[in-house]
Amino acid sequence: MFSAQWFINGGGRDGADMNVRPAWDKGYTGKGVVVSILDDGIQHNHPDLAQNYDKFASTDINDSDPDPMPQDNGDNKHGTRCAGEVAAVANNGICGVGIAFNASIGGVRMLDGVVNDAVEARALSLNPNHIDIYSASWGPEDDGRTVDGPGPLAKRAFLNGVTRGRNGKGSIFVWASGNGGRFVDDCNCDGYTNSIFTLSISSASQAGFKPWYLEQCSSTLATTFSSGTPGTDASIATVDQDARLRPNKICTDQHTGTSASAPIAAGVCALALEANPNLTWRDMQYLVVMSSKPGPLIRETGWLNNGLGRQYNHKFGYGLMDAGAMVDLAERWKNVPLQHVCQSAVITSDLPLPEQVGRSVKTSLSTDGCAGTLNVVNHLEHVQCKISLNYSPRGNLMIILTSPSGTRSTLLFPRPRDTLGSSFDEWPFLSVHFWGEPTAGTWSLEIINAGSERSARAGQGILHKWQMIWYGTEHNPIRIPRHSSLISSPQIPTPSQQQASPFPSLSSVFQSSFQPSFPPFFGSSSKRKK
């Protein structure tokens, strides 16, 4: 089925694809890299997976045994399809080929039963010094009104993963951004994709446009190809689950959505990790930011430039991932300095929010980026804005954050279906659009009533408080030869400048993070496949 794998054989518009062949031509095939699919299990006896199956990257949480074989009931093909995208065996005459066809592939069966905080934490914590990359294509309901994120155990699993996983280099968590486009959902209301610890991946159609299911948000880092308009754009060809291993049932060309994008990204990351096994979890995010390409997706609207001149889009992050460019960069990459975390004071404003449609309020704060302290951040990575407010209906609101460099990032788009929700309680809206910019200066927050009608509770809408958290480094983190055409960094630090201070506040910042509150009607939703 290689001819049907248009996303790796030049089948996109103008010959675009994931640019995997240059990485393969260099000999990178994922060998030595371990990927686990956190899903509904994987059919490990599938003839296109068996050779690469890794039992030490697998378990069954739903039935409490080590075998992740899915139920053969027609509803549990998801994980097997994702596994094939990453590591389907090459040149065996069966189905197609995985992006990282020599990687070791495992699976965690966790979605075919009750999914709670403990189940998620067990999946995210499986064998972290053996598994390099975890791929997840699930999350809260993509219904356009849910606001939900990881519980305390899953939060701890993420933090332990990035600080202790891969023997201290950090587990790499690749996450699908979500399929709530038809409900005008916003992936910044999904606490998994808007975590700084996840590499959040969106989708583009074969023609290079926004698919109907795409969610816009400021936490998406990059994009891979996936399905688009049925009958117009092709979907993703990969292996399929069939317990009887019938030759006409073990392959599919109908894998869809951001579910299909996250494993493609995981496969590309596996190639980069083979090129440089010393990459940390933050190094991998840098490589994605710096090598992804707007070009194949440039016909879609919404492209902007940040303060470093990098193009970004709320639909696609920094563009289409490029496997060839990623491995080239990985080969020469030097680890970035340790992460610093700078927090502003909590701004308690009790600012009235606009009742009339089209009206907005603005507030701002100034910072020196924690200059003169151990937590100084001069070169930004992730930026969080923790917001507490009341407004009814919550879905009317649009929130825009503007950096001192003038970069505008929409933290929240209006969600017309979110009519019963009325609050955000220290919700950490995340933006990756300021990557590389300086921290110091004035940051502006604008909240707009962008709904279709006045507030249902006149005079009750209030921005109670907000706080900025800046993640990044003191010194220039990019340490590869400055003649590289991929780099837009001003200068390379000297060895004496490369000493970074510890990051004493990362753990405390994350542990003291929000516990979201929910309207009684919704509660905390169960997790769903994307």
Concise account of the structure shown:
Helices cover 15% and strands 23% of the residues.
Description:
With 530 residues, the chain is of the alpha/beta class. Helix content is 15%, strand content 23%. It has eight helices and 22 strands. The chain is globular, with a radius of gyration of 22 Å. The two termini are 24 Å apart.
Provide the succession of SSEs: HEEHEHEEHEEEEEHHEEHEEEEEEEEEHE
Q: What is the CA–CA distance across the termini? A: 24 Å
Any guess at the CATH architecture of the largest domain? Answer: 3-Layer(aba) Sandwich
SS field, number of helical segments: 8
Poorly predicted runs of 5 or more residues: 483-525
| CATH uppermost class of the largest domain | Alpha Beta
Q: What is the 3D shape?
A: globular
The major beta sheet can be summarized as: 7 strands, parallel
**What strand order characterises the main sheet?**
2-3-1-4-6-7-8
What portion of residues is helical? Answer: 10-25%
Structural class: alpha/beta
Radius of gyration: 22 Å
Q: What do we call the CATH topology of the largest domain?
A: Rossmann fold
Total domains: 2
CATH superfamily of the largest domain: Peptidase S8/S53 domain
- Average pLDDT, rounded to a whole number, is 91
How many distinct beta strands?
22
Question: How large a portion of the residues is in β-strands, by DSSP E?
Answer: 15-25%
